[in-house]
Amino acid sequence: MPIFPPHAKAKASRQGFTLLEMLVVLAIMGLVLGLAAPLFTARIESGQLIQQAEAIATQMRHAPMRARLDGQALYYGVEGNPPPDARPLDFDLPDGWIVRSTGPLMISDIGLCAGGEITLIAPSGRSLRLQIRPPLCETIITNGPQQAG
């Protein structure tokens, strides 16, 4: 004579998941995370790129006032001999980030800006362009994150 009724045995044997079912679920989760991780890191870097570009834009917008207050011209991207009595513009960027200009950026000691274009390049090679418009260094981020060529 059985101790447990027949329906109690069926319930007891179907509780939980088998090891194979758990391994299949873990493998699927690993694949999904492996495919999604690069998208998340690209999103994070894109946000950092925009944040750094906005910081440079703010520095450029404040540069004319800095030049007027100091009574000293500012420059960036001048190859060879820098202008006399001028101070370089320093962009405070994390390691691995690069700023390139299409030509020299000059801000006179009275705060007038010659204009130009800057490209900010992230360590991965993604880039953003910033357009600096004369005469007051109005700075505009002209395009979204792109892969540098």
UniProtKB/TrEMBL annotation:
Stored PROSITE patterns: PROKAR_NTER_METHYL (PS00409)
Ranges annotated as spanning the membrane? 20-40
Checking InterPro entries in the record gives: N_methyl_site (IPR012902), Pilin-like (IPR045584)
Entry keyword Nucleus: no
- Name the domain of life this protein comes from: Bacteria
Keywords, ordered alphabetically: Membrane, Transmembrane, Transmembrane helix
Oxidoreductase recorded as keyword: no
Record NCBIfam families: IV_pilin_GFxxxE (TIGR02532)
- What protein name does the entry list? Type II secretion system protein
Q: Which organism is it from?
A: Iodidimonas nitroreducens
